[in-house]
Amino acid sequence: MNAELIAVGSELLMGQIANTDAQYITSRLSSLGVNVHYHTVVGDNRSRLTDALKIAFSRCECVILTGGLGPTYDDMTKETVASFFNLPLSYDQRALNELTEYFKKRNRIMTESNKKQALLPDDSVVLYNEYGTAPGCIIEKNGKIAAMLPGPPREMRPMFDKYLCPYFKEKTDLVVYSEYLHLFGIGEADAEAKISHLTKSENPTVAPYVSIGEMVLRISASAATEKEAALLTGKMKNEIYSVLGEWIYAEGRSSTLPSTVLKLLTDKKLTFAAAESCTGGMVSSAITDLPGSSEVFLYGAVTYANSAKMSALSVSAETLKKHGAVSEETAIEMARGARLAAKCDIGVSTTGIAGPGGGTPEKPVGTVYIAISTKKGDRALKLFLPGDRARVRKTAVLNVYDLIRRTILSGNY
Asked: What's the pTM value of the predicted model, to 2 decimals?
């Protein structure tokens, strides 16, 4: 089954709020075997919504609409969709009773405009709202399906999960199963070139998603059962590992480099500390955002000034004078100083030029040194990171966690 999402609301077009409903619905439909081919956003205008419905139903059999089910004059989704299908609107008694009870409990007067939310297209399947006042509904007519859901995510999501998930499960014969591989240290173009022979597959499919500094490969397969689909994705996953295994740091939808490193440190019963200059505490923040970090993270020092590097981390004045704050030598002394000050297993550091100013021909903006110190020795990496200040800093943090990960996996701690 192919579907299109239509989000209704002028506030979406004006950029006042983000369309998080579309992201949630699309991810859920994918696992149900429903293919979403288009996302459309329409303002609160009846004629434009009618045009959007005509276009949507010309290219798919199912349209899911979010928003425009409220009590105000510009909430016109139900009325427009009902007119599109030539269906009258009638009061649903249960919805009306629930609305009446809702206002009674809050000692508020229910106006005629509030009652309008209980008006629903005849012959529709009503989706009752347990978290708000606007019920949704499903219309099936002439081989087409229109499902209407409220716009607020806290109302839409439970309604979708309770009603539309089982509804679509009955409508589709296939199960879609997906796995996610997280990669760091390889560019999108390079990764795709290495697995181009695999990305041509139609079942399972391999789709790359790129964010700052890293990428995710989603492997999805469809089959009659989840077990069969999982076997297909598993085979493809093994083939990708044989080519890109060096850069794959985790599996799972919500994995991150810091969470992966946290698990490694916890499993190995290792502790670490961070000394930061250009990242200004972001390395420390990335780990302390995670539950359980207190077991592995002991110490964080933001040492912007050279005097702080010397007093907090025992970086020598001679090193700073001879090599500068942004150097391999300083990065190593910072990492070692953090490890010794915290009396932990691993010390890491960052020092660099995040921009927009401060660069020189020898050390341009984006020059960053990161270092790691363990009982087995010290190591520094020189990085040239593109982008603005925020991107340089975030990418530096990811490189630090990848360096920790690789050091633990190699046993050099």
From this structure: 0.78
